[in-house]
Every structure is written in C-alpha cells, then in structure tokens.
C-alpha cells in the first residue's frame, strides 16, 4: 500500500573526471555568428519563441548541474555560462548525456526526464529563446532547500555533520547536501539519522531529538524528489531553544593530561579529576567543551564519593597510559558506580538541573569523566577536553542522583544471559518508598514522602537490544518513563522530562532490559569477533549491565503534578500514501491508559466526572462527520472507502471511557490518497539473504587472497543495509538469488558508501557487483581517502530471470566500513 518514491540519480565516486571537448562541437562554422542568433530562436518577423529553448530548458539545468565546475574559474576545462559557450559544445553535451558520463562522479545529475529534455533541445538545433521565458524543466516541487530543508538540517544534522565534526560528509551548503542525497534519504527513512533512542509517544522530554513526522516527510520528499534549491532569501532560521535557566560556570576542570586514542575505531577512556572545592556544594549544571571535536564521540561526567577516591585515582595509568579503559559511567572494581551529573553529545546543549535544583558534592570527591573517542573519520590526535561546572552554596531543592538496578543481579549467576540466546530479558520492580528511604536523605526525603523524578536514563553494554522503565502507580495506572526499542551503546544519554514526574510512596518503578547474545550480535575485540558465551553482570567489555539513573528531589509547591492518558499514532506515518479501498495499518502508543472491549466493561461510577478515567477504548474518524471505527487493540487495520477522493485526508483517534464518553484526548495524522500506486522499482536483494561464497562459486576468484580472514559477523544487516567492517574482513564475496527479473534495457540502481579509508601504508580497495555472472560495475579506490558515497544508475544489456545469482565483492584495508544501501532494478 505504501508507494515507494524512487531515489533520484546521483553519481558519486572518489575521483573527479572532467568533461573534455569533443571534436565537432566547437570549431569551424558551428558556433553563433556575431551578426545574429543561432538555431531557430530568431524572433524576427513576429515569429513566436520556441517553448523549449536555452533559456526555458537548458540554462536552468546546466546552471544547476554543470556551471559549478564549468565556469571561468572552475576546475573544468571550459565554461558553460553563456549560450554561445554551450552552443559550441553541443556534440560534447549529446555524448555525455547519452552515455551518462557527466556530471562527474561526486555530483548530482539530471533525472531521466531532464536528460530527455536536454537531448530534445539539442536535437532541435539548440534554439536560444529569450531570457524572459519561464523554465519548462520538470525540476519542480513543493519544498526547497533554503525555505524548508536548510532549517531542519541545521537544527537536526549539522551538530555532527560539520567540518571537523565526528560525522562524515559535512553539510552547510546546498551542494554538500545534494551530493549525499541518496544516503541521507536512506538514513532518514530507516530512522537511524538523526540518532534518537527513545520511542516517541511516551513521557515527553525537553528538547526531544530525532525528527518530527512533518520534518521527516519534508526531508524525504525533497531528498527523493527534485532537490530544488529555491531562493536563499526564503531562508528563516529554526527557532532556537530558549535558555530559561542561565548558569554561571564558575569551575573549569581540565583532564589531567592530554590523551591520544589508541584503540580504533572506538576508545572508551575514563579520567579521575580531583574535585577542587573544600566545602560542600551543589552542582547546578555541567558544560563540556571537547578539545578535539572530530574524535570526541560523547562524554559522561560523574561524581564518585570521597571514600572511593583512592580506588579511582589508582585505576589511572595502570596500563601505562593516562586514565583507564571503561564503559558507561566509568566504575572501577571495588567501588559503586559514580553518580552521573552531566554529559555531552554532538549537537546537544549543556546538561543542567531544573531551575532551583542542585546535586550535592562533598569535599574530597572525585569527578570521573568518561570519554568516548571515535577515530573512524579522523586520525588520532591528543585531546585534553574541558569540563565547566556551575555550583551554588544553596539551592531551593537539593537533589540526589543515583544509579538504580536489582542488587541481586550483581551476585554471581544473578543476571544470566545464556550463550546463543537472541532474546534474554530481566526485570525488577522497585518500591518507591524504599528508594526514598535509602537515597532520599540528601534531598530531605523519608520513605513516607512523595518525591519527584526529573529524568530518564538507561544503561547496558554491547549486547543490549532494548529496555524500558515504567512507573506503576498504586491505582494500577502505568506510565512508560523511557522506552528504547533499539539500544545503541554509542548514543546513550540522559533525557530530562518536559514535566516533573511525581512518585508516591506506594508506587512501583519497573526496570527491564533485553539482550541479544546470538552469535550474529557478538562484538569485536582487537579485530577478532568474539564467540558467544555465557554472560552476566560485570564492568568489563564483554560483561553486561541493566540500570537506570534517577535524579530525586522534593516536589514543588503549587506545581501541577496531575497526569492524563495520551495516545500517539505511530502508524500510519504523516502523509503516507494509500489508494482508495486500502487497509491502513493502525498502530497506537498509549500511556496512562489501558484498552478493553467496551461491551465487557462497566462504567465504574464516572457518569459525571471522567477526569480520572485511565481505561477504555478509542474511536477512529476519517475526516469530519464520518461514522467512527471503535477499537480496543493497539494494532488494527482501518479500511478506506472504495470511493475516496484523491488528496490529503485526516485520520483522528480519540480516547473514550467505558460509556463512550469522550475524554478529550486525541491525535490525528494526515494521509495522502493517490489515484493509484505509482510505478515502483523492484529490489534485487535482501539484506538478510546474503551468503558467503567459496572460491569455486566466486566469479571474481582471481581477486581472492591466499588467506581469506572474514569472520561471519564482520558483515551484517544494519538497518536494512549490508554493512561490512573491512577492518576485520580482508575479503568478502557474498551472493543471493535475485528477487526480481532483469531485462536488457533496464537500469540497476546501486547506492553504497564507505567511511574514511586508512591503512599503515598506501593501499587500495576493490568493490564490484555482478548479476548472473555478468560484471555490471566495479571500482578501485586508493587508500587513504575520505568517506564517499556511490549512487549509480547502471544500464543493463542482458536478461537475467528472477533467481539469478547476485554477487557483491569487497576487499580492502584499515579500520573502516562499507555499507550497501540499495540494489534495485528500474524499468
């Protein structure tokens, strides 16, 4: 039912090949004379201007795709800035348009309609027309870069994708975004970028990351559409977050000494910094200033108690290097985990407590700074980052931060994660009054007091696959605090609630974690993939944890701590396309609300007051004035009428009590009804279906090294793409039966990218794709080189029935990765 929008052409490769003049295009009497215009553009005698002319068709496209290089001061050998210059290169233009040789690899190119338009103009004699003509190019669209896309990318992407940042492919200009449009669309569509772990629809957080549904739609519509630049004057910067609690950072603490990462590509290193104040104080905010932004992936700042100081100081330097290897908050053997007080991730603002809140720090404490260095896109250099801390002698509400887990899990055998098991779960229910009794003294709390939780945080190690924390109130109402469906150790963070969350003494807090200990999910240590083994709680790289962080304080007077049900429409997504008569997959996320069949439930005396109802069902309306669909399952299908008119329609979901009384809680989503499903390209491969080939089946066996060292889990499905860690795999040849037939004249669309490629000495990488034994594309890439994206459309001159062998070959050097995003046939 979902119409797939085909990605536009965009050719990228490491080298830049310039368009050379072809014979016959710029010599003899082929150019315009000084006495008049050329071709059929003459307007003498009252003749009308040609509809398809230089000004109406060629100039807009050439300015967009060619003039960036082909200008008076450009890298290309001749300019294409005027009609005379273009007219003199007609033969060359025909050649490169028909062959697809230009624009050069590394730049976006015209789509098939634009190419046909240019070729038709050239075939008609390349008429000049008039500068007053309106462009007839198919380059149109409802969104433009400057008006719609640029503000979103500045707010959501450029914190990492900047010059010197940790992410490859710096953005910041129209050309830089267009150059990686296909890969950007892939990452936006599968949700991997921009990274945001919490599931939307549960407890809202301040400054939520990720993309809003409308933002995702705009980006995909533009990235997979015409990539219109628009007018720079239309640009309006996105609203910046207002800093409601400005802080005075009165302490500046530097790492004890510079550290150069040695473990590649990820080095997790902790450092102990002596707390400089000799009197009790409160930390009200933390600001991290990375020294080397290009290699600092994230930072976690914690406080260890004075009685544990000696253990933390002793941990540093034991392996002959500053600091010590660590995971998470940076605990050491024999000491409890320190209390997290702040941190930094690219693009994030300062970590601060709520206004009037502070975390107490005793004299003699130790600041523990966990640095995660990533040198995938940079060479290691010495780093000595700064930590700025805001403190206060007194605060309105003292807060107590602590890490929470099940103490039984820390005992031998207490949290078993069996070898080979892909779905291991453990959970614990923690009474709120016990937490206040054990940890609340510093916040002025006892076990009999209600208290406030200010943030959500979840921590696991590399085998973690998901986790959740839930508040279960004494009345049975459940509020999901934080839900992470796809855990990523590299993107863990602390998430401050949009509203303070009140916890009553008889409430329960549920913590649950899930791990994938299958062989396919094992990590690499020193370039060698580990064999799945029994795992339990521990501080080491191969051990696991399950914990949450709580920041506790007294409630505020006159603060509205009431809670209400919520509903979030996860599916369908904003402006998803359907045809009349389709079944719309409906997936709802509900919080503080339990569903049940209205025919099997009684109205429990809420005839007049429905404000405290937390159970019921929902009604779904299509547009206004329609009869509702009544549901009590969070996964359902909504049938669209067969006679629906094309255009934008609205699905509205509202929550109802047992007597069908509206609770005033609703959400709506727009869907796009189309005349019929647009023609789709067909995927040739599936990321889960690749099988490694031996030398006998390898059509490029001549490339095979004598010793093939490629652990099975150095290549895997990553968000629907085949990712290969070539730092651990020296040669890979994989194949699978094609999912679609290919006919001569079809086009194969290939999209893949590699990270920065590095090796101890100059080397090269080789990548190739073959179908039915026919090599359709290959490339040799010199190492070292910067990250690059290939987005290619390859004409095919042979037939290959469905089920033909598709092969993907790769061999190369260094710590880097290649990702195959798309391989599909277009007709």
Please bin the fraction of helical residues.
Answer: 10-25%
User: How many separate domains make up the residues?
Assistant: 6
- Compute the average pLDDT: 84
Give the oligomer, counting copies of the same chain as homo and different chains as hetero.
single chain
CATH class of the largest domain: Mainly Beta
Strand content: 25-35%
**What is the number of helical segments per DSSP (H or I, 4+ residues)?**
10
Indicate the CATH architecture of the largest domain: Sandwich
> So what's the overall shape?
globular
What does this structure look like?
- With 827 residues, the chain is mainly β.
- It has six domains: 114 residues, no CATH class; 90 residues, no CATH class; 153 residues, Copper type II, ascorbate-dependent monooxygenase, N-terminal domain (Jelly Rolls, Sandwich), CATH 2.60.120; 160 residues, Jelly Rolls (Sandwich), CATH 2.60.120; 109 residues, Immunoglobulin-like (Sandwich), CATH 2.60.40; 145 residues, Sandwich (Jelly Rolls), CATH 2.60.120.
- Helices cover 11% and strands 32% of the residues.
- It has ten helices and 43 strands.
- A hairpin with a 5-residue loop joins strand 17 and strand 18.
- It is globular.
Observed structural traits:
single chain, 827 residues, ten-stranded mixed sheet, 10 helices
Short description:
With 827 residues, this protein is mainly β. The protein is built from 10 helices and 43 strands.
């Amino acid at each position: 039912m979902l119409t797939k929008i085909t990605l536009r052409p965009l050719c990228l490769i490491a080298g830049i090949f310039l368009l050379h003049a072809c014979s016959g295009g710029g010599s003899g009497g082929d150019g315009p004379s000084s006495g008049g215009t050329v071709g059929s553009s003459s307007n003498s005698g009252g003749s009308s201007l040609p509809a398809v002319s230089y000004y109406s068709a060629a100039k807009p496209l050439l300015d967009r795709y060619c003039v960036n290089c082909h200008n008076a001061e450009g890298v290309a050998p001749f300019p294409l800035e005027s009609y005379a210059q273009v007219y003199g290169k007609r033969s060359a233009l025909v050649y490169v348009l028909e062959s697809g040789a230009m624009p050069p690899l590394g730049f976006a190119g015209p789509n098939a309609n634009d190419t046909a338009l240019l070729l038709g103009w050239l075939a008609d004699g390349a008429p000049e027309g008039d500068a007053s003509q309106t462009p007839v190019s198919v380059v149109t669209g409802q969104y433009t870069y400057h008006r719609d896309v640029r503000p979103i990318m500045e707010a959501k992407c450029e914190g990492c994708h900047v010059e010197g940042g940790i992410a490859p492919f710096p953005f910041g200009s129209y050309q830089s975004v267009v150059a990686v449009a296909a890969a950007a669309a892939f990452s936006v569509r599968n949700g991997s970028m921009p990274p945001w772990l919490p599931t939307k629809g549960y407890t809202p957080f301040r400054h939520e990351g990720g993309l809003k549904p409308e933002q995702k739609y705009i980006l995909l519509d533009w990235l997979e559409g015409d990539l219109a630049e628009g007018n720079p004057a239309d640009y309006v910067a996105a609203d910046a977050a207002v800093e409601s609690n400005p802080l005075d950072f009165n302490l500046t603490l530097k790492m004890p000494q510079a550290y150069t990462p040695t473990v590649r590509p990820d080095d997790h290193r902790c450092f102990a910094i002596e707390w400089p104040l000799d009197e009790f104080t409160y930390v009200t905010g933390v600001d991290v200033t990375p020294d080397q932004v290009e290699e600092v992936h994230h930072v976690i700042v914690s406080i260890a108690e004075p009685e544990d100081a000696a253990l933390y100081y002793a941990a540093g330097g034991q392996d002959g290097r500053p600091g010590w290897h660590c995971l998470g908050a940076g605990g050491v053997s024999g000491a409890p985990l320190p209390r997290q007080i702040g941190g930094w991730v690219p693009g994030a603002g300062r970590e601060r407590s709520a206004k009037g809140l502070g975390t107490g720090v005793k004299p003699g404490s130790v600041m523990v700074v966990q640095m995660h260095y990533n040198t995938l896109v940079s060479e290691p250099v010495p780093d000595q980052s700064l930590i700025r801390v805001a403190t206060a002698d007194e605060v309105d509400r003292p807060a107590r931060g602590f890490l929470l887990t099940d103490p039984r899990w820390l005992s031998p055998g207490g949290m078993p994660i069996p070898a080979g098991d892909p779905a291991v779960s453990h959970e614990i229910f923690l009474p709120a009054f016990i937490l206040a009794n054990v940890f609340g003294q510093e916040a002025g709390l006892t076990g009999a007091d209600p208290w406030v939780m200010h943030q959500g945080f979840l921590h696991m190690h590399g085998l973690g696959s998901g986790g959740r924390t839930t508040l279960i109130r004494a009345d049975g109402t459940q509020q999901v605090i934080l839900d992470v469906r796809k855990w990523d150790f590299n993107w863990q963070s602390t998430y401050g609630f949009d509203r303070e969350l009140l916890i009553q003494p008889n409430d329960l807090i549920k913590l649950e974690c899930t791990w994938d200990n299958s062989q396919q999910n094992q990590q690499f240590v020193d370039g060698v993939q580990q064999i799945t083994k029994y795992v339990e709680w521990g501080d080491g790289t191969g051990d696991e944890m399950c914990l949450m962080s709580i920041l506790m304080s007294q409630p505020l007077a006159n603060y509205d701590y009431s809670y209400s049900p919520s509903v979030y429409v996860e599916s369908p997504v904003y402006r998803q396309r359907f045809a009349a008569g389709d079944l719309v997959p409906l997936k709802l996320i509900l919080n503080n609300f339990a569903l049940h069949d209205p025919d099997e439930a009684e109205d429990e005396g809420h005839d007049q007051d429905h404000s405290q109802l937390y159970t019921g069902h929902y009604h779904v309306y299509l547009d206004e004035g329609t009869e509702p669909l009544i549901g009590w399952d969070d996964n359902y299908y909504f049938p669209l009428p067969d006679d629906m008119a094309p255009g934008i329609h609205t699905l509205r979901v509202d929550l109802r009590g047992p007597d069908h009384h509206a609770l005033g809680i609703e959400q709506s989503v727009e869907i796009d009804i189309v005349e019929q499903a647009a023609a789709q390209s067909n995927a040739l491969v599936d990321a889960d279906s690749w099988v490694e080939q031996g030398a006998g089946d390898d059509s490029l066996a001549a490339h095979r090294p004598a010793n093939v060292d490629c652990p099975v889990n150095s290549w895997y499905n990553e968000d629907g793409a085949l990712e290969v860690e070539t730092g651990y795999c020296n040669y890979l040849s994989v194949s699978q039966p094609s999912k679609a037939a290919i006919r001569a004249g079809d086009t194969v669309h290939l999209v893949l990218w590699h990270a920065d490629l590095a090796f101890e000495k100059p080397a090269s990488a080789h990548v190739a794709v073959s179908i039915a034994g026919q090599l359709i594309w290959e490339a040799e890439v010199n190492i070292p080189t910067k990250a690059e994206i290939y987005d290619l459309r390859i004409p095919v001159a042979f037939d290959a029935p469905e089920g033909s062998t598709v092969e993907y070959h790769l061999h190369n050097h260094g710590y880097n990765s290649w990702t195959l995003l798309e391989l599909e046939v277009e007709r």
